[in-house]
Write a structure and sequence with these properties.
InterPro entries: CheY-like_superfamily (IPR011006), HalX_domain (IPR013971), Sig_transdc_resp-reg_receiver (IPR001789), WalR-like (IPR039420). By secondary structure, this protein is an alpha/beta fold. The protein is built from eight helices and five strands; from the N terminus they run βαβαβαββααααα. Helix 2 packs parallel to helix 3 and helix 5 packs across helix 7.
Length: 194
């Protein structure tokens, strides 16, 4: 990865895609794709982050995401969509989820977060992706909805197992101030460090 991240914006509304590109062009190398097929043609190993609309005619963002993961592309993906999240997101292979409308600052922040996470090992990446999904569902769903969801219960179990596996690494990261706030934002918890 070079110093300037490469970002692919996948958005079926050209004016919105171009607006996102204008917001990001000073900090990133930006490419745009206006549908799913174009996105799959444009994505390659040089892309660091994909901002992916979920609802598009033709190939949906979900299909594009599945295809990207099948290709084992090593890039971070943020869904940027008007689709309110539901429990189906638990099994999806994205790293973050933004509900439109979004600001330029939100896009820059999510790209920065994803690039930071890309430096973590695979266990921590999975942990942060799952923690982000849990935080999103905690915010969007009632306690009763969460309690009645098998997917949510499995998400909590997977998080618990990963938390045990990465505890030593997390303690090391938490000793560094920059990671302390990231952890609190994503996990929604504060931990004591020695």
């Amino acid at each position: 990865m070079s110093d300037t991240p490469s970002v692919l914006i996948v958005e079926d509304e050209p004016d919105l895609a171009d607006l996102y590109a204008a917001w990001l062009e000073e900090e990133c190398r930006v490419r745009t794709a206006y549908d799913g097929a174009e996105a799959l043609d444009a994505i390659d190993e040089t892309i660091d982050v994909v901002l992916l609309d979920r609802r598009m005619p033709g190939l949906s963002g979900d299909t594009v995401l599945d295809t990207m993961r099948e290709r084992n592309l090593d890039c971070r993906v943020a869904m940027v969509t008007a689709v309110e999240p539901d429990f189906d997101i638990v099994e999806m292979g994205f790293d973050d989820y933004l509900v439109k409308p979004v600001s330029g600052d939100e896009l820059v922040d999510v790209i920065d977060q994803l690039l930071l996470r890309s430096t973590y090992d695979d266990q921590l990446r999975e942990f942060f992706a799952l923690a982000a999904k849990k935080a999103l569902l905690d915010d969007q769903k009632t306690a009763a909805e969460r309690q009645s969801s098998q997917e949510y219960a499995e998400l909590e179990d997977r998080l618990a197992v990963l938390r045990v596996r990465v505890d030593d690494t997390m303690q090391e990261l938490l000793a560094q101030d920059g990671y302390r706030q990231l952890w609190r934002d994503i996990a929604g918890e504060s931990f004591e460090t020695e």
